Amino acid sequence: MTLFLPAFIVVPLVAALAIMFLSWQKKPGAVTLANVATVYLFASALALYFFRPFNTVLLFNISGWLSPGGNLLILDGLSHIHLLVANFVAWMVAIYSIDYMKKFANRDNYFALLLLMITGINGVILTGDFFTLFVFLEIGALAAYALVGFGNKRAEIEAAFKYFVLGEIASLFILLSIGFVYGLTGTFSLAQVSQAFPAGAVAIKNLILTLFVVGFGMKAALFPFHAWLPDAHTSSPSPISALLSGIIIKTLGVYALVRILYNVFGVTNQISLLLMVLGGTTVIVGGFLSVGQKDIKRLMAYSSISQIGNIIAAISLGSPLGIMGGIFHAFNHALMKPLLFLNAGAIDRATGTRDLRKLGGLSSRMPIVSAASIFGSLAISGLPPFNGFWSKMFIIIASAQAGNLVLAVIIAVGSILTLASYLNFMKGAIFGPAVGEVKEATPLSMLIPIVILAFLCLGVGLFVPVVSQYLVNPAVVSIFNGIGYGKLMGGN
Questions:
Q1: How far lies 260's CA from each of 151, 208, 253, 254, in Å?
Q2: What's the CA gap between 166 and 223, in Å, rounded?
Q3: What DSSP state is assigned to residue 74?
Q4: b or e along 135-167 (b: 16 or more beta carbons within 10 Å of the residue's beta carbon)?
Q5: DSSP string covering 204-254, please?
Q6: Neighbours of 371 (CB within 10 A)
Q7: Domain residue limits at 310
Q8: What residues pair up with 129 in beta bridges, in sequence order?
Q9: Of 375, 371, 229, 218, which Cα lies nearest the Cα of 304?
Q10: What are residue 59's DSSP bridge partners?
Q11: pLDDT value, residue 212
């Protein structure tokens, strides 16, 4: 089973190179290769869930050929849930892109960059050392920058440039932190650092953790590091917006931060408080900024910021229920937000606009997309019986149990603001008198991922006990191993 692990990196990378070669030879095959590669990756992640013994860890030794001081690809409960959902969403995006990307030039380059981004995402999820983590972080980020500006219009290039500048500033903070870690421990291995970091170096430890929080916070679009995200989402092709919101900001930002904080260094009280303040503020700021938006994708971008705040606030609590709520909400967000962005792309393609003032009456003219939009809107607003209700409820209860009623109120207010913004979306685009013209029907390749994601938002909500037991709880156990993670990985 361990042989599956390097395939999550090798397969999309080789497929990306093959697509570029075919493009240079002016031969077809990009669409087929991208879809075959993504379905293979998801099927492999799913198969591993059935055959990996519960709460065990799979290791693959890469010592000597990927990084100095790194030695393992690691699959535990935390990395597995992220690997599964990331490659599932990538598969949905690849299907959706078959027809959606026909209007773009250089479609082969799009699919090559998409697979390169997936390579980076999978690498970040699986890597067991800081050096390789940074390399894959940059691979995923560079592909994302290019995809944001893929349309080559002025606004898209400007958004990509802003994303690039802020993203690379974030990378500098992360690289500086890694330099401090290597200087103190002489190793890049996450496991070895967790066991070898000097116990008395409290001040430098807090500095390193703060730099990591700032760096990964910028990658995750936490307030006040969020300025790049609304423009990036608005300008990029809708399937890329789906990946950016559903996977990129959580993998390159939240997942990497949680892994480092909990499994390598352990969370100090000061860092926990910092995360709580950043998370709570992000919930409110993102919620308020989403309410008045008239561009559908911009509305969804600001709500993504608010949802990331929910996840970080929950993780900061440090309690089993808080971490469970945070991981569960990250999982749910990876289903809800791609659904909403894919719906936005379908609406834009059919009507030629994303302006709510120029839309209306889509419930009768685009019934499948409208129904899926309602599912996604109710789910992300935290209404039962959809998946978002349960994860937000867990976070609120965990906050109350920790005696932090202020945070519980903030999460509740954030949900009300999210509901207000999506009621505005549903009122403007779906209900009311028909406005504008639906110029073309939505192709089947775009409807299939939309329908699947919509039913998953409902299905996960209806089967919460099963999802929490088999997907979420193993991730919580991995986090609660704390720096004992190093012993599990052979770090001492």
A1: 35, 11, 11, 10
A2: 13
A3: E
A4: bbbbbbbbbbbbbbbbbeeeebeebbebbbebb
A5: HHHHHHHHHHHHHHHHHT-TTS-THHHHHHHHS-HHHHHHIIIIIIIIIII
A6: 16
A7: 4-488
A8: 189
A9: 229
A10: 74
A11: 92
| Residue 66 pLDDT greater than 50, yes or no | no
Exposed e or buried b per residue across 18-48, where buried means at least 16 C-beta atoms within 10 angstroms of its C-beta = bbbebbeeeeebbbebbbebbbbbbebbeeb
Residues 6+ apart with CB under 8 A from 51: 1
Backbone angles phi, psi at 75, to 5 degrees: -120, 105
Q: Could you give the 3-state DSSP secondary structure of residue 105?
A: coil
Termini Cα distance of the chain? 25
Tokens of 459: 């299905």
Which residue stretches of 352-443 are H helix?
362-365, 367-380, 387-401, 405-425
Q: Are 345 and 99 in contact (CB under 8 A)?
A: no
Please check whether residue 239 is in contact with residue 332, taking contact to mean a CB–CB distance below 8 angstroms: no
Number of domains the chain is built from: 1
Phi, psi of 245 (to 5 degrees): -75, -45
Distance between CA 367 and CA 54 in Å, rounded?
41
Tens digits of per-residue pLDDT, 120-146?
999 999 988 898 899 999 999 999 999
Q: Three-state SS for 440?
A: coil
Query: Distance (Å, rounded) from C-alpha 30 to C-alpha 20?
Result: 8
Q: For residues 422 and 303, is the Cβ–Cβ distance under 8 A?
A: yes
Mean pLDDT for 69-98 is: 88
Q: In Å, how far from its chain's centre is CA 277?
A: 21
pLDDT digit string, tens, across residues 307-329: 999 999 999 998 889 999 999 99
CA 13/CA 357 separation, integer angstroms? 43
Nearest Cα neighbor of 144 from 227, 45, 251, 42 is: 251
CB atoms within 10 A of CB 244: 26
Burial 425-446 (b: 16+ CB within 10 A, else e): bbebbbeeeebbebeeebeebb
**In the prediction, which pLDDT does 487 show?**
63
Go through 173-207 and write b for each residue having 16 or more CB atoms within 10 A of its CB, e for each that does not.
Answer: bbbbbbebbbebbebbbbbbbbbbbeeeeeeebee
Return phi, psi of residue 338, to 5°.
-60, -40
What confidence score (pLDDT) does residue 450 get? 96
* Helical spans, DSSP H, in 127-227: 130-148, 154-185, 190-196, 202-220
Task: Please name which of 266, 180, 271, 291 lies closest in space to residue 217, comparing C-alpha atoms.
Answer: 271
CA atoms within 13 A on the CB side of 18: 16
